[in-house]
Amino acid sequence: MEKKIERRGLGRGLSALMADVNLDHSHGQAGVVASADLLVPIERLIANPDQPRRHFDAAALQELAESIRQKGVIQPLIVRPTGDVGVYEIVAGERRWRASQIAQLHEVPVLVRQFSDTEVLEVAIIENVQRADLSPLEEALAYRQLMDRFGHTQEKIAEALSRSRSHIANTLRLLTLPQEIQNMIAAGTLTAGHARALISVPDSVALAAKIVGKGLSVRATEDLVRRSTVSPASRRRASGSGEKDADTKAIEADLAAGLGMPVSIAHEAGGDRGRLTITYYSLDDLDLLCRVLSSVSRDMRS
Question: Within its chain, how far is the Cα of 190 from the centroid?
Answer without folding.
Answer: 16
